[in-house]
Model the fold of this input.
Amino acid sequence: MIYVMSFFIFLIGIAVGSFLNVVIDRLPLEQSIITPPSHCPHCQQRLRRLDLVPVLSYLLLRGRCRYCHAPIPRYLPAIEAITGVIFLLFFFKYDLSALWLISALYSAILITVAAIDIKDGIIPNKITYPAYLLAIILSLLFLPPQGEGMFVSNSLLAALYSSLLGGAISFLILFVPCLVYKEGMGWGDVKLAGLTGFMLGFPSSLAALAIALISGGIMAAVLLLTGRKKRKQAIPFGPFLSLGALAALAWGQNIVNWYLGFF
Done:
């Protein structure tokens, strides 16, 4: 039964990933995510259902449009596969529970934001602002067990306090560098940091931010040393914030406990 459920969860994930691709492509261009139906951006041919099977269609078509044979961007099946794998990993972590549902929802938001930041260099307010409200509402409606998941709390007030504190601290940690060095940190990054804090609560939000800063710093060093980026060239930080938040969604409290074990 577990294999059937795992396969089903993966299918849900890649289907959601297919929708996320629509958002990733259209939202930065301020286009509707509903109309027109999916079509090839090169020949404008409307895609059939067989052309829209997540991951599988890309493989069967060998990465090219069925009609004009233009190359299909590789990030499209990558987003679908990544979403499917992450949904599956959270299923293994939380089973089919409210924790899984919220983690999957937050994952979809974070994947979308990361992909748009990589592709277009922006973090849209149309995603972050509604997600702020969603995170606060969920912190009031959902209470995971003590010491597990997103919040460490045992009351509605404690959950709300955890969410607000996590959001405020994460926001402020990046707010100051953004004021001092505007070329190195964008306001979108600051707002996304606040959002991840609202999602995770305190202290898991600190674990997420630490992972983001460390992984971002390592990647920046690698890109500079290999000559792929120059010192004044911007490196999107949204993907690293998303990576840190995803890790903390699964292991945030464990990471905090591991760190505190050194003292």
